[in-house]
Amino acid sequence: MALSTLRFSTFNVANQVFFQSSSRLSFALVNLKPIVPGHVLVVPTRVVPRLRDLTPDEVSDLFQSVHQISRVIESEYRAQALNIALQDGPMAGQSVPHVHVHIIPRRAKDFEPLDEMYNALDAKNLSQDFAEAYAARPLRAERKAFEAEQRERQRGNVESPFAGIEDRERRPRSGDEMRIEAERLSSLFPEENRGVQPQRAREGSL
User: What ranges do the domains of the chain cover?
Assistant: First the structure.
């Protein structure tokens, strides 16, 4: 799939993508509101809500990608450990109906107590974060599609179990900030696995 068409749920995230698997079954993106620097998401290219909805090949590719990316993230951010988390369904804290794996670098005393990180993760509402970021952009086709879906949800025509707790403490990053990080991380991977590169950013993504 072309970089310009990669989506996280309904959102075009081309400018945030720093990795694509060789098979193109998975990709990784930098986070709009990271819990800590280096907090990234690894996502199957096909948009499905639950891990059980993926094919065996997609599952294998997703976690091989997590393995490959986690080594780079740990080194690049000088982490002492990693949290690797998948919230599989809304009752597990999933706030966007698209399977995604969090890779979160950890260092001593970054959270006190250590498991406070899980409360921070549970408090994230990625769907709302992305919606707010899109609302700040000029109206484009992606935003129109999202707003149409939201209207249907308000009418009760589309079930929406993804109602987490809004996180008001972290500032959403700008598209330029995320693109710069994506370009830097992309350069750390083999050429066939790279995501966004200078001059390749596409209009329509954050």
Answer: 7-177+184-191
Q: How many other CB atoms are found less than 10 A from the CB of residue 52?
A: 10
Q: Does 96 count as an annotated binding residue?
A: yes
Q: pLDDT value at position 206?
A: 57
CA 185, 191, 193, 199 torsion-angle sign: positive
156 is in an annotated binding site: no
Catalytic residues: 100
Instruction: Answer yes or no: CATH 3.30.428.10 is held by domain 7-177+184-191.
Output: yes
Edge-first strand listing for the sheet containing 26-30: 17-20, 26-30, 40-44, 101-106, 81-86
* 31 labelled ligand-binding: yes
The kind and range of the H/E element at 37 are none
- List Cβ neighbours of 86 (8 Å cut-off, separation of 6 or more): 51, 99, 100, 101, 102
pLDDT digits (tens, 9 = 90+) for 166-197: 344 456 888 899 999 999 999 999 999 999 87
